[in-house]
Amino acid sequence: MTTYGDEGLLRSPGDPQRVTFLELFFDLAFVVALFQLSHGLIQDLRWRGAFHTLVLLLAVWFIWYGTAWLTDRLDPRRPPVQVVVIATLIGSLVIAAALPEAFGRRGLVFAGAIVALQIGRLLLLKLALHSHELQRDLIRPLFWSGVSAVPWIAGALTHDTARSALWTLALAVDYTAFALGFPVPGRVRQPTSESPIAAEHLAERYRQFLIIALGELILVTGLAFSGSGFALDQNAAFVVSSATTVLFWRIYIYRAGELLSAAIATVAKPARLAESASYAHLLMVAGIVVTAVGAQLVITHPLGHTRPASVTVILGPAFFLLGRAIFEYTVFARVSRNRWIGLLLMAGLAAPMLHAPPLIMALAAAIVLSGIAAWDAARARRRPPETPSPPGRRR
Prior knowledge:
Helix content: over 70%
Strand content: under 5%
């Protein structure tokens, strides 16, 4: 493999920050992954199934998240970086295919694919950066990928509670090591919060992943509706679910969604703000995945009996609103009152909605989202456009 120096693979300040077609192509694997997660959750709405879905979502997000940061630092137009991205795409499809049985008979396939991706792409980059200083920096993430590989593989060789515990440990190692800049004894580390980033590129990558999640919600809604009897109540459920999807988009993009790149550019440690925004997006994506499960339940049985577990997924927009509130704080260092009011209303709906059919519950959640969107629109007309003022901005 041809070797490249720093100037060959790293982004330079003058390089375009727009997302490449290769990165958009890479994202298609995660449409499949999110669909598999929502499909798996609807098969098991108990606490056990919810926890398994959370573990799998965190694993999937870490793969996408790590690749987004990799292409933010390295130039995805370069052949070695393209090889790494395409290899990650293929590995991600294997992970997506194994998701439904990850806590069953395909646990080793799932964990093995994660470990192979984590270690394999770093080794490919080491070959491309032979004898360069950046190549030596890869030793730290390689070390921690090797550490987390132990509980990943050990968990795949066990069952039930032990697998859940070991994979949770593996995720804790991965996320903590990334946040701390992959510290290794005897080696100088650069904290993740101080890493250079391309603000416009990374902000666009977050927006695109959220669009992928909304696409998964549209896919689930469409498939559930196509399998329905097109009765009047099912048609109404389809309209409510479609409206919820549109409201998610509208609430997300209003101001904070448009200004993330500008907010990143105004702070002294831009990577720290970008990392905080990533966790807010993860929570919003989780809310959308849960809402997709609720949409399928509502369209399939709009006037059926409501179980406690059904309340949680039909009111999935509450998770989205919480993530959106965190995201707003990341960009503006404050949270609008309508976000908190919306969350309180969602929480207040839970108990009384146990006695209402799923369609009424979904309609109530959509009305709350409509109120938030209308509030945002009214505020936009009364006030001039805001500028980002994130925590830690440069004075």
